[in-house]
Design a protein that fits this description.
165 residues, mainly beta, Pnp Oxidase, Chain A, 3 helices, 12 strands
Length: 165
């Protein structure tokens, strides 16, 4: 199909065949912790240590994180569907009942996640209806943290690994 033969829904459904993990991007501003669910996260570079995520240009949460200059990336574990859903909602108290502690740079680290990274905002690029955000990693979850299985998203639904050896 060429671009004249498909719409955004068809594109979204096609891309949904790529399984991804689920993250919560979080920061701290003068109003307290802020965050949103994000499935477009990836490693960019080991030297320097860079990671990236994308976020809609219409996000009302990301500008608050951008203004702080840093953020955490919390990779959700397979028992955290409720966390993903809570941070995906607009207008709700996303932090109600969420256990978190501050990283060394004060960004929220959610309890019970698979792993987390703390980053400084390194670069941002406008890419269509999204921003591509690059973060420089300053701190990572310790190895003893990495004991759970990931929460996955595939074809519009959550999925779980049967064996995460």
């Amino acid at each position: 199909m060429t671009t004249s033969e498909f719409d955004t829904r068809t594109l979204r459904d096609t891309l949904g065949h790529y399984a991804s993990g689920i993250t919560v991007i979080a920061g701290l501003d003068q109003g307290g912790p802020v965050g949103f669910t994000c499935q477009s996260f990836f490693s960019v570079s080991m030297d320097p240590p860079l990671v990236s995520f994308s976020v809609m240009t219409t996000s009302t949460t990301y500008p608050r994180i951008r203004a702080s200059g840093g953020f955490s990336i919390n990779v959700l574990a397979d028992d955290q569907e409720h966390v993903s859903n809570q941070f995906a909602r607009k207008g709700a108290d996303k932090w109600a009942g969420i256990d978190w502690t501050p990283s060394a740079r004060s960004n929220p680290v959610l309890g019970g996640t698979l792993m987390w990274l703390d980053c400084d905002l390194h670069a941002e690029y406008e890419a269509g209806d999204h921003y591509l955000v690059v973060g420089r990693v300053n701190e990572i979850s310790p190895p003893h943290w990495h004991t759970k299985r990931p929460l996955l998203y595939f074809k519009g639904r959550y999925h779980h690994l049967r064996d995460a050896s």
